[in-house]
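# step 3/5: fold
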Amino acid sequence: MARILIQVEGPTEETFVNEVLAPHLYGRGYLQVSARIVGNARLRARRGGIKAWSAVREDILKHLKEDAGSLISTLVDYYALPQTKGKAWPGREEAGNLPYAQKASTVEDALLADICQELGDGYFPIRFIPFVMMHEFEALLFSDCDAFGRGIYRPDLTPAFQVIRDLFESPEEINDSPMTAPSKRVEGLVPGYEKPLLGTLAILEIGLAAIRRECPHFNQWLTCLETWPH
């Protein structure tokens, strides 16, 4: 029976793993499903915000070495991944110049290659399944705009959410500029938007089935986890 640790970006993603993904994966035969906020776990009072790849890589490598029977994955936003200098995540700067369809895979392939290089010969690469969320967590909220509105007790905003959703083939394609990223669009409609509270309420109302239906890259990742050898 498999155990999986998912490195997440902040408390909202942590709740998503614990409350939404974990029950589903337990039903697929996993023995343990847990989330850990990336970077230094001792600084949990300062949650949120993506850490340097070097810190995340250290956590991943340590876990893979210490628990030979575990699987590890990531759940981080493409939008805010550091691109340059000491905090850079592999592949992120390159991906910024590529078409949408190549962005996530470019980063994910680079993360996997980096981990494999660090571990050397004999490493079983399918134990690390990186996932980069396009373009950020709030995109998932547009998977069901009716449920989004109900979840945050603002059903009056459902039509406005739907207008944004209808501009894109998938919520994952809602773009990532500082003005039009999913979170920025939500903040423009919901003054005082608090991701840990409202984002969690919304995602629990929306549910996994709608997210999988509307977000193909997310669905591909979850399918991979479901079919991983137990």
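# step 4/5: annotate
The first strand starts at residue 3 and ends at 8.
# step 5/5: archive (pending)
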